[in-house]
């Protein structure tokens, strides 16, 4: 079992920044991928960014490339999502998930990000 707890969401103005955190516990993550997803009202959950714990390879959705950065702290077992140049289209509940072999098995409770214009 892996437990994930997100934090760092909030209200920010257009062009502002936020850093989300996803703290993992319960199992070592050496073979896991951790991803950030988001779900806006009335829309399906969509991929935002992912990081493979072993090796640190990252991937991003086209909509956030150049604005968002995913990173990790090995000591704290925490993954971060630095979000810059935020727009109202980034408003959503952000979730982190993890699993192996491309499957996300464990999810956090989500954190709300609201970008006001």
Overview of this structure, please?
The mean pLDDT is 95. The chain has strands at 3-7, 10-13, 18-25, 33-39, 46-52, 58-60, 68-73, 78-83, 92-99, 106-107, 111-116. The relative contact order is 0.32. With 117 residues, it is mainly β.
Write down the overall mean pLDDT: 95
Radius of gyration (CA) equals: 13 Å
Specify the number of helices.
0
Number of strands: 11
Low-confidence region ranges = none
Percentage of residues in strands: over 45%
- SSE ordering: EEEEEEEEEEE
Secondary structure class reads mainly beta
Q: Name the overall outline.
A: globular
Largest sheet: 7 strands, mixed
Which bin fits the share of residues in helices? under 10%
Ends apart, CA distance between termini: 40 Å
Task: Name a few traits of the molecule.
4-stranded antiparallel sheet; 7-stranded mixed sheet; mainly beta
């Amino acid at each position: 079992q892996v437990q994930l707890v997100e934090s760092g969401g909030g209200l920010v103005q257009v062009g502002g920044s936020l850093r989300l955190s996803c703290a993992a516990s319960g199992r070592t993550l050496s073979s896991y991928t951790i991803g950030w997803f988001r779900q806006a009202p009335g829309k399906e959950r969509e991929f935002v960014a992912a990081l493979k714990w072993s090796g640190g390879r990252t991937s991003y959705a086209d909509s956030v490339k150049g604005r968002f950065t995913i990173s990790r702290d090995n000591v704290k077992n925490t993954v971060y999502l630095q979000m810059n140049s935020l727009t109202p289209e980034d408003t959503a509940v952000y979730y982190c998930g993890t699993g192996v072999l491309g499957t996300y098995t464990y999810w956090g409770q989500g954190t709300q990000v609201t970008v006001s214009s």
